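lol so apparently i was supposed to do this last week
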Amino acid sequence: MTSRRTKIVATLGPASNSPEVIEQLILAGLDVARLNFSHGTPDEHKARAALIRSIAARHGRFVALLGDLQGPKIRIAKFANKRIELKEGDSFRFSVTFPRDAGTQDVVGIDYPDLVKDCDVGDELLLDDGRVVMRVEGKNDEELHCRVLIGGPLSDHKGINRRGGGLTAPALTEKDKADIKLAAEMDLDYLAVSFPRDAADMEYARKLRDESGGTAWLVAKIERAEAVADDETLDALIRASDAVMVARGDLGVEVGDAELVGIQKKIILHARRFNKAVITATQMMESMISSPMPTRAEVSDVANAVLDYTDAVMLSAESAAGSYPVEAVKAMARICLGAEKQPTSQKSSHRLGHTFSRCDESIALAAMFTANHFPGVKAIISLTESGFTPLIMSRIRSAVPIFAFCPSRETQARVALFRGVYTIPFDPTTPRTESLSQAAVNELLQRGLVEQGDWVLLTKGDSYHTIGGTNTMKLLHVGEALV
Ligand SMILES: Nc1ncnc2c1ncn2[C@@H]1O[C@H](COP(=O)(O)OP(=O)(O)OP(=O)(O)O)[C@@H](O)[C@H]1O
Ligand SMILES: CC(=O)C(=O)O
Ligand SMILES: [K+]
Ligand SMILES: [Mg+2]
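anyway here it is w/ adenosine-5'-triphosphate bound
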């Protein structure tokens, strides 16, 4: 399965718990399984992770596991009768002292004491992903007094965002700290940090990950208005992360849906510029929660993210709680392949006119320049320890597949997120009669990935246990397999 370059992330949930569905998701092209720590118990997540790993191994596939922290999503408390119905023009209050389980038609408790301090008269509050909108008309020490601008149902524990962002809740809650330990225990490959405000939030998450003994690469979810308010903050946040997610659910509520598309394009561009992988997420195939077919608008949304060169597209409720999880992955795979046929996604001007700061980066980009300009090159082999060299290679637009040859389980799974990069398990220290380069090329020949007469580019370092040690590039003509 090497012809699709854009990767597919799918959230697992009640609709995708059974071994049968998980197997079908993997066969349909799942590359990264997302475990959302906002829902479910640690045991449920462990059971899903174990299934993914064993079924993927059975099929010789490499699927990365991504844990997504709940973060400080601010929520209302509960209503006495579970839900109310608000009409335009109604007055409504949020109270930090009102009993937590006794909300009425007029008032509800709030689990975030600073809400009153953080909000001012004139602010707009969006509830339940923007389905209900209110304006703050007054406040005292304990309560916000609001007017309903857009009415609708409101039920227990729905989330609140402020239009324009700016709520000060810190990015990592006590639950998140426990889940960082859980992620380490589960050997997760990626860990997504929800609502980081700036680079410092990512640095703190990295410190906690290190203390927990985890090795997951950290994904910054871009979902606060402050994070995209200026390029300096956005770029610092991206640089402090290992990968980035355009978390359109919350980001769209904070910045407004009209500006979201332009901001998405900017995040993808900046993530790639700083050598990070990027995931485009949320409501990509929303109608497929209840329909076996995507709409034209959804097809167009996925295709445009592919043309903008996202590394991965993501399914949320479609695969976690919808009626057609497997169909949604299949539809995404088909749309990615179709969009990738456009030659615009095979050309690149990445870092033209820039200087490089690292040896491995220089070799990686020289390899891609050669691959894109020498038509005989049919494959790139990167003998890699951490996956960093193939990550940099895949920042360049190209139609040539990049094979990450790596011995460690972590790297084999990690590269599943990178666009156009595929895992080949390979231990460079195995004693062998032929040369290392010949052994690597034979591996591709035996898998039918290249044929006699093709050219293959290979990069490696002098010592195989040095991260960042790539210093060599070879251009190899494929002869007969040596067996
Ligand atoms: N593990 C799970 N258990 C139960 N329901 C789930 C699970 N994962 C997802 N869901 C359902 O799918 C919906 C969409 O999934 P998604 O991962 O986007 O969650 P979310 O509630 O928007 O969370 P967040 O904003 O924290 O990422 C959820 O609202 C929930 O109803
Ligand atoms: C994924 C997520 O958290 C969002 O889109 O808001
Ligand atoms: K989450
Ligand atoms: Mg979110």
